[in-house]
Fold this protein.
Amino acid sequence: MNNQTEWDSALIKKYNVSGPRYTSYPTALSFQEGFKASAVKEAINSSQRSALSLYIHIPFCHQLCYYCGCNKIVTRHQHKADVYLDYLAKEAQSLAHLYRHYDIKQLHLGGGTPTFLNAAQMTRLMQIVTENFTLDADAQCGIEIDPRSLEEGMLPHLRELGFNRVSFGIQDFNDDVQQAVNREQCADKVANLIVEARQLGFNSVNADMIYGLPLQTVASFQQSIERLLALSPDRVSVFNYAHLPERFAAQRKIKESQLPSSNEKLNMFKQTLAQMNAAGYTNIGMDHFAKENDSLAIAQQKGQLHRNFQGYTTHGDCDLLGLGASSISQIGNSIFQNPKDLKDYYRLLDNEQFAVTKGLTLTRDDEIRAFVIKEIICHFELDFKLVEARFNIKFNEYFDDELASLKHFIDDQMLQVGKSNLRVTNRGRLFIRNICMTFDAYLKQQAKLNRFSRVI
């Protein structure tokens, strides 16, 4: 079946609005302050799962990238990571007895810049994990890498520690663009690292790119994607740069006069989509691509793809535990988050409290809508009978208003809706977030906050 995403300029003009990326439902904007330790324990006790996905946030970066909106601390002081590891150890030790019945099937290090850690610190971090949790022998262990901050010999060291997946933050290969966002890197070094990662036997070598950065043109970004495809990464994320200087102070250093127009940005993604399709990549959803033989693409074909705070994943059977400042956990039917501020994170752990400040426990309606949105955003279709059997509802009655609201998508040939299922067409795939938004009960209130990125 041809499932290549189709580009329709008229639809983009009509539907390119702001909306959630649905790494969870409800989204993080719905989290409530004061989520209690008792609620965390209840979530763990009530969960039926025994598999765990562990995310660890490393907030430090050696240098400020002007475009970045992540939770980060820019510093050259390596000892700050030692202090942070002390607190990660304290957090892990405080939680170990609660998660002793779990096996970690997936480990992911994000940031910030996880490779801010030197070899000794990385070794210590993995010791913290293995001393407090059960890491499955076949666990999928991934790490996000800034090619500029990778010390000599780190890739072999990561492989020795058990990491089998790497994701390189490349963003763009153009020297002028790199200089404009304070992220200068040697393209040959990046290419050599990808080759080295393959030689070392990493199972998956992935890359992140960004379009819409200052001084980018359609032609220059096309060249960057060509250079990337020559390296043949297994997965590629091509993110849309959202310029929000009122929210992210670093972005104020970007000259707005150097930013490409909205039309140029659209043409960049249109060209990228064509390049990825021609190179044999599957558009998993939104701005994520994978080779046809990649586990993500295979999981999607089998109807087993999942989505959480780490994005698209094959580990739908796992609860998610986040360690470190700003990390988010999703255990059973509860979602909760650690404080974003490092001082608050340290203070809670010093007081022998759980490092959790906000969260929520899903209502039955939340659970139903979360399942519906997950099915649509992961598989571009929804079997109503599957929802009915799982939640003991009559789909057409429960979602009567939502089904009526889908009419304009149907009229624009973006969606096909029958008596027992809906299916997103190839021309509707770009607007999967819009379609999911129809089933979001919180959106009207949150839309007033204007805190979402555009769908394309």
User: Anything to note?
Assistant: The first strand starts at residue 32 and ends at 33. The first helix runs from residue 9 to 15. The mean pLDDT is 93. The radius of gyration is 22 Å.
